[in-house]
Amino acid sequence: EPFVADEYIERLAWRTPGGGSRGGEAFDPKRLLEEFVNHIQELQVMDERIQRKVEKLEQQCQKEAKEFAKKVQELQKSNQVAFQHFQELDEHISYVATKVCHLGDQLEGVNTPRQRAVEAQKLMKYFNEFLDGELKSDVFTNSEKIKEAADIIQKLHLIAQELPFDSLMDFCCYPLSSLGKYHDLECQLIQEFTSAQRRGEISRMREVAAVLLHFKGYSHCVDVYIKQCQEGAFLRNDVFEDAAILCQRVNKQVGEVFSNPETVLAKLIQNIFEVKLQSYVKDQLEEHRKSDAEQYLKNLYDLYTRTTNLSSKLMEFNLGTDKQTFLSKLIKSIFISYLENYIEVEIGYLKSRSAMILQRYYDSKNHQKRSIGTGGIQDLKERIRQRTNLPLGPSIDTHGETFLSQEVVVNLLQETKQAFERCHRLSDPSDLPKNAFRIFSMLVEFLCTEHIDYALETGLAGIPSSDSKNANLYFLDVVHQANTIFHLFDKQFNDHLMPLISSSPKLSECLQKKKDIIEQMEVKLDMGIDRTLNCMIGQMKHILAAEQKKTDFKPEDENNVLIQYTNACVKVCGYVRKQVEKIRNSMDGKNVDTVLMELGVRFHRLIYEHLQQYSYSCMGGMLAICDVAEYRKCAKDFKIALVLQLFDTLHALCNLLVVAPDNLKQVCSGEQLANLDKNILHSFVQLRVDYRSARLARHFS
């Protein structure tokens, strides 16, 4: 523990009798002083003893340090002597090695010519045997020494090829006999390689292949190997999977057999593509090429995809320097005749398939599709209708049918989606944007023009005139379905077309085409919604004309009015609430508020003009206020601030029908009426039965 002087003194005082630290003991300073003096003396004696011990240890340490330094010096001297001996030994070893290398060079200089002379003598011996026409050497007669015989025959064959023609004619029997032996031996080696391959003897195959490497028939050996590798490899229906498994197996083996494995494996792959795959692809496609375009396109896409997937797997193998170009050329050689006119087949199929989907739908509705006219007259009608919003031509009763089908739309989009996928896979990169644009044009023609635009035209023709009674308004259903279809159309545009054209000039062309078709649709939708709102207002007019009576606001018995609001008000509000709900269900986003605001403004104008047609007694004015209050409650369902403000103002105007003559000026200067034109205020005051009284006229003036 750390030494603390205060604690040490306390413990010493505590142990000393009379130190005053123990309870009940008398304090004795002399005794405590005596104890302290004695203890100090003991500490001094202990300090001297320890100091002598330290000095002794220091002397001993210095002595041992000197001895250690002396020993280190002796070791350094010994190390220097040993290093000198090592250098001398190294120099001696280098000298001996130089002598040995020189001696070896001399021996090699003597031995190499000797070996060449021996080999030349042997070749001359074998040469003589060929000249004599009798092959007596064991190397030619013993089948187990076929490797040595092949080496000799190869060398003799090379010698024969290097001899001048005149010399060759002198030994004409030699080349004939050696050539025959050359070919016989070559055939034996290939046969031996074939047998070894069937037995699965890799080492023997490697030996024979190494011998054949210097023969002209080496390529035939490779062909035999490739042919035998494929025996029994394509027994299943999936030729692509079989090819991948075969190449995986051969890739492991070919490096153990041949000195150029990448060349052999590339030749095997080329053989598979040009023989097996090309034959399989032709059988699959030619069957449906002219009879069934749908199946033909599906098979073409599937086969091309599986071929490229196989190519991706083969990229893992060593096929030489430019294996990507090598495999691409193989794929192109198989499919080039089918890809050249792919887009024409695609467009033709898409056109016929889309037309069939639409016709099948209209047939299911027992509907004979009427032609939408084109040309000068039709364009003139269209411009007049857009500017005047007049229904040109007879109204068509669609019986509530919108002639829009999400099933048809999904089928068209699905066909187009598959066409985009095939286009992406099968088109040349330079033609991809152009081909994708053609497919998009087909989608616009059949989905937007032939289906949606036709439904809008039919829906517009089916909207009754604004003065029709009990008219059924189905155009909002057309709007609802068209809105849903637009979302699906836009999603496919972004998900499937944009990736194909995003980096090409066709992007702006597609965007402009999409913008034009949507603007064209929006014009017709706006026109139809406007005419539908007119019909709604017309229906409200019929309700008010049929249900509202003059006696409602000028009852015969002022004291016996039991109703809170008129029957006409109840029916109009019920009708309006249904239409508001229908509008909310048919549209989304800001379109809901825009249409509801327009309907609300027209609804307010109708009620305003309707109230102007009657005279009001005091009790009738109260009833009119109750009606307007109910209309205002109905206007709250619109959730449009402007519409509610209009009805608030109308409600304030109706107060002029019942307010006391003395309070007219005060009411007219109120917050809601102060900013209104005085003529409007005057027109409402004139509706009072008592307006002719001098008092009322005087107060209002």
From TrEMBL:
PANTHER family: EXOCYST COMPLEX COMPONENT 5, SEC10
Coiled-coil zones: 40-78
Sequence similarity: Belongs to the SEC10 family.
Key words, A-Z: Coiled coil, Exocytosis, Transport
Protein name: Exocyst complex component 5
A cellular component annotation (GO) from this entry: exocyst
Tagged with keyword Plastid: no
Residue ranges of every copy of the Exocyst complex component Sec10 N-terminal domain listed in the record: 29-137
GO biological process per UniProt: exocytosis; Golgi to plasma membrane transport
InterPro entries found in the cross-reference section: Sec10-like, Sec10_HB, Sec10_N
A Pfam family that the UniProt record links to this protein: Sec10_N
Domain Exocyst complex component Sec10-like alpha-helical bundle span(s) in chain numbering: 148-700
